[in-house]
Design a protein that fits this description.
Layout lengths: L10 H14 L6 E3 H8 L4 H12 L6 E3 H13 L4 H12 L16
Antiparallel strand pairs: 1-2
Helix pairs in contact: 1-4, 1-5, 2-3
Amino acid sequence: MGPTQGKELSPQMRERVLKLFARFDVDGSKSIEKSETIKYWKSNFAKLNTEELFKSVDTDNSGTISEEEWLNFWTQVLRSGHTEEEIADELESIESGSSWVKFENLENKKG
């Protein structure tokens, strides 16, 4: 096993990731629906951002993103070689309304 393969998010980063999840999950259902992300991004390429987000994170293609899928996605970003600092920067960017960034080669990149 490579050095990043078994990495987990730190408790602080896990809390930060879930905080952003809660900002999307406005109805508190513990899942993110496309209508919630479209409202979140308003007119800032909302539909495109939503499609990219769901393509990346909704691994069971259910049309919603569970907390587990959300945490798994960010854990995969960490395991692909990104640092928690980079993840924190990205979360901050999304929180300020910036577009969803597609992380390349998450499945293919091994640590």
